[in-house]
Amino acid sequence: MACRSGERYYSYMCSTDCETPTECLSGALQALAGERIEGWFGPALLEREAPLVTAANRLAAELARTTRQCEVSGAAEHDGKATMASWLRGHHRLSQGGASRLVRNGRTLDRLPVLAAAASAGAVGAEAVSVLAPVVSDVNLARAEAQGVDVAAIDALLTEVATSSSHADLRQAVGHYLARLDPDGTEPDPTEQRSLSFTRHTDGTVSFHGTLDAVGGEKFQAAVESIQQASRPAGDTRSRAQQAGDALVQLCDNALASGALPILRGHKPQVLVTIDLEDLMDTSPGAGVGAGAGLTGFGGIISAAKARWLACDGNVTRIVIGPEGQPLDVGQTKRLFPPHLRRAIEVRDRHCVFAGCDAPSYWCDVHHVIHWIDGGDTCLDNGALLCERHHTKVHHGFRIERQPDGRWRTWRPDGTEILIGEPFLVSA
């Protein structure tokens, strides 16, 4: 279908009559969404994928260009917003980082016409534009002018890198240019280059986004890598990204357990969970599996099962709540496994006791073999070292048991035992 806007004609496969390019785009996207691609073979799918990537790049460039014109004209004021970033957050639910990047990309394309042409043609994506943004910051443009740098030539050179080399190569080229632009300048304050933001989702999971300076990033990677590359349970088939996430949590566990973190509002930093006693004590099958029973200190929602797992090697405080929600009585906080008992269990077990795991003791919680809420004693015979991964497994159906000879045995939820190093029977 040919669609007209003014004196220009646009030929798209539209599902409805349209009069503007954006209407044509909507019709084309609707037609694409209606295509049945299930069952297509690889070559056909790749032929469809490539032009879609190009189209996404072109659309991102057009969105950035429009955002820039909105910013220049003060369009956000029409809806009572001070900036385009705030308008994008409020009207289209973009994150703060996403809105800022879009505004910044619009400014970048406005100042780098060669890059803008490549982005408009679909040869450069939004990520590449973001990498080039520092080149046209006010500070760096002033430095370039002071040194007689031809920014137009830099635009052409870096656009060539963006369209012909990898993303990593582009980042390196931009970094090299910026370093040469101010070789003897004052070292930037690393604390001003670091940022970290958190987003908590409805299911209690947390996403985060951050930026670190070169040295800070190296420290962060070295700390996570040290844990990730240390001895981990055999047969761990998770992706590297999953292992890195686990290593980051372990790094936090180590820091919290060390007791060396700064005091937070009169208390040492800790993971806080509030849960009704009835939910905590209901260990019937299926109870407390879904999220919603416990509330964490930072507003997360977790299941009763997860709360019981956290309480296994934590401090427990009883608070009696009245009918109108007011606290009536606060009992004394009780440490389930005191330090001297934990040390004894560490000496005995040395590492995680789950079959096939040798995670070191400082990665482990002390687990009540018979849960304390079921009357299990907090004593040496009822304690066992379990790493986070296997502590979770034991609270979800797996079972461990210490034998009279001191060996630990592990059973799956179906009752079968996990045996390590079983001998092969060879028939004569």
UniProtKB/TrEMBL annotation:
| InterPro entries named in the record | DUF222, HNH, HNH_nuc
- Which Pfam families does UniProt cross-reference here? DUF222, HNH
Q: Which residues form the HNH nuclease domain?
A: 340-392
Domain of life (superkingdom): Bacteria
* A GO molecular-function annotation: endonuclease activity
Question: What protein family is recorded?
Answer: Belongs to the Rv1128c/1148c/1588c/1702c/1945/3466 family.
The protein depicted here goes by the name HNH nuclease domain-containing protein
